[in-house]
């Protein structure tokens, strides 16, 4: 899928601060006169938002791993067709809070479904679309869970199903993210999520600035 715009994704464990950094980057790019689309997965589009409710609702503990994977890609396919691809074709910057890399590490490795199944669905849903650069905001599994649980306690809501998975599951996800960064160092750039918000923002810009003309 050809594009004229710039596609940047943010990845990381829950609670890493990636969403905050995506918003900060969007504001900076808009200040430079760039048109920016911000989206998130699962979700983004109105249809994707409905799918998100199913995926993240803590009441849906019986959701099986294969159905989970298919729902993530249903949301992603809608996001690509309705929002991401048209924005890129218009020459805009697209910032996505998660993309296929999340499915690789959470479902492919965390759930044990295998990378080949994830990539097969990616070929259908995304048709070759890959990020120009991916920012991996890096924190450990235990830190991720502690931050997520603190957030959920401070702001009670129902989107906690993934936070309620085992420590072992989240550790597998953490290890898979690092394996991904080692496999694709040119695309996946790791920044230290333990630093202050401002320090992380500077690290993000040190990566993204090279892609902004």
Integer-rounded radius of gyration: 16 Å
CATH homologous superfamily heading = P-loop containing nucleotide triphosphate hydrolases
CATH class: Alpha Beta
What count of domains describes the coordinates? 1
Question: What does it look like?
Answer:
The chain has 213 residues and is an alpha/beta fold. It has one domain: Rossmann fold. Helix content is 54%, strand content 13%. The chain contains 8 helices and 5 strands; from the N terminus they run βαβααβααβααβα. The chain has helices spanning 18-31, 46-56, 65-89, 100-110, 115-125, 141-154, 167-183, 197-208; strands at 6-12, 36-40, 93-97, 133-138, 188-192. A 5-stranded parallel β-sheet has the order 2-3-1-4-5, with helices on both faces. Helix 4 runs antiparallel to helix 5, helix 4 packs across helix 7 (167-183) and helix 6 (141-154) packs across helix 7 (167-183). The longest helix is centred in the middle third of the chain and has 25 residues, at 65-89. The two termini are 22 Å apart. The mean pLDDT is 93.
In short:
Helix content is 54%, strand content 13%.
Task: Name its key features.
Rossmann fold; 213 residues; 8 helices
Lay out the secondary structure.
Elements lengths: L5 E7 L5 H14 L4 E5 L5 H11 L8 H25 L3 E5 L2 H11 L4 H11 L7 E6 L2 H14 L12 H17 L4 E5 L4 H12 L5
Parallel strand pairs: 1-3, 1-4, 2-3, 4-5
Helix pairs in contact: 1-8, 2-3, 3-5, 4-5, 4-7, 6-7
């Amino acid at each position: 899928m050809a594009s004229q715009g710039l596609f940047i994704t943010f990845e990381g464990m829950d609670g890493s601060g990636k969403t905050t950094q995506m918003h900060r980057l969007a504001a900076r790019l808009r200040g430079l006169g760039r048109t920016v689309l911000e989206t998130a997965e699962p979700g983004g589009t109105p249809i994707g938002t409905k799918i998100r409710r199913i995926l993240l609702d803590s009441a849906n503990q019986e959701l099986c791993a294969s159905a989970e994977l298919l729902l993530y890609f249903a949301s992603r396919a809608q996001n690509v067709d309705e929002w991401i691809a048209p924005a890129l074709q218009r020459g805009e910057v697209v910032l996505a809070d998660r993309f296929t890399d999340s499915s690789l590490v959470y479902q492919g490795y965390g759930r044990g479904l295998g990378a080949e199944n994830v990539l097969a669905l990616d070929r259908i849903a995304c048709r070759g679309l890959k990020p120009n650069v991916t920012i991996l905001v890096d924190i450990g599994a235990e830190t991720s869970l502690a931050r997520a649980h603190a957030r959920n306690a401070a702001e009670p809501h129902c989107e906690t199903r993934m936070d309620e998975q085992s420590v072992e599951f989240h550790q597998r996800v953490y290890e898979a993210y690092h394996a991904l960064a080692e496999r694709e160092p040119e695309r996946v750039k790791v920044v230290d999520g333990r630093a202050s918000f401002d320090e992380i923002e500077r690290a993000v810009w040190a990566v993204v600035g090279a892609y902004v003309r």
